């Protein structure tokens, strides 16, 4: 049985969304970050950073959301959710997966760190304007790459859309404007996917059952 260690409204949703798309059974282990459980000795034995998500599959433990998505897709899925390793489409898929982490998410996490994640004495509010500018630059690149396609690889939804979509929802929660018409339409296609809604519901249930 797969176990997902997570907390609602975090990167954990990328993993649960992927599992719901795959139709794979899993156990959700709620890590109460607000009570400091991420920094506990028991959880740091799983993820030394104290962050979520983490995934356990038999003896394997993974801690980076992009790596978890590709692992799950390779083991439990098939194209088009995750293209075949070594194919041209897989190369393009992984390019966008890396873009989501390195370009699209990075300025949002900068904002997050300097709003709430870093110790107060390490926060620098002056970075907010630059981070917002960086996010807009990444949005322009994403919009150009998406073009008139339904999803980032074309007509078919893939794991890269989970990572990109989750990051766009994160940007919206941070009140960053997303004005490109194709990105707005893309967000609307993603937000009501049954697998995403089911993942959110299960995460909330896990949190309220504590």
UniProtKB/TrEMBL annotation:
Domain GST N-terminal: 1-80
Coiled coil region boundaries: none
SUPFAM superfamilies found in the cross-reference section: GST C-terminal domain-like, Thioredoxin-like
Pfam families linked: GST_C, GST_N
Signal peptide extent: none
Domain GST C-terminal: residue ranges: 86-210
InterPro entries tied to this protein: Glutathione-S-Trfase_C-like, Glutathione-S-Trfase_C_sf, Glutathione_S-Trfase, Glutathione_S-Trfase_N, GST_C, Thioredoxin-like_sf
Record family assignment: Belongs to the GST superfamily.
Protein name: Glutathione S-transferase family protein
């Amino acid at each position: 049985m797969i176990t997902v260690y997570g907390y609602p409204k975090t990167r954990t949703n990328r993993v649960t969304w992927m599992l719901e798309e795959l139709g794979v059974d899993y156990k959700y282990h709620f890590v109460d970050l607000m009570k400091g459980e991420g920094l506990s000795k028991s959880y740091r034995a799983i993820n030394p950073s104290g962050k979520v998500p983490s995934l356990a599959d038999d003896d394997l433990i993974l801690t980076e959301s992009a790596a978890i998505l590709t692992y799950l897709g390779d083991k439990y899925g098939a194209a088009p959710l995750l293209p075949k390793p070594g194919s041209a489409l897989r190369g393009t898929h992984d390019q966008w997966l890396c873009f989501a982490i390195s370009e699209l998410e990075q300025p949002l996490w900068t904002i997050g760190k300097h709003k709430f994640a870093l110790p107060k004495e390490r926060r620098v509010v002056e970075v907010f304007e630059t981070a917002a500018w960086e996010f807009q630059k990444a949005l322009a690149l994403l919009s150009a790459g998406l073009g008139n396609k339904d999803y980032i690889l074309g007509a078919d939804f893939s794991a890269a859309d989970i990572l990109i979509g989750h990051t766009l929802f994160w940007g919206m929660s941070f009140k960053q404007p997303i004005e490109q018409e194709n990105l707005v339409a893309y967000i609307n296609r993603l937000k009501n996917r049954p697998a995403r809604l089911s993942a959110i519901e299960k995460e909330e249930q896990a949190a309220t059952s504590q």
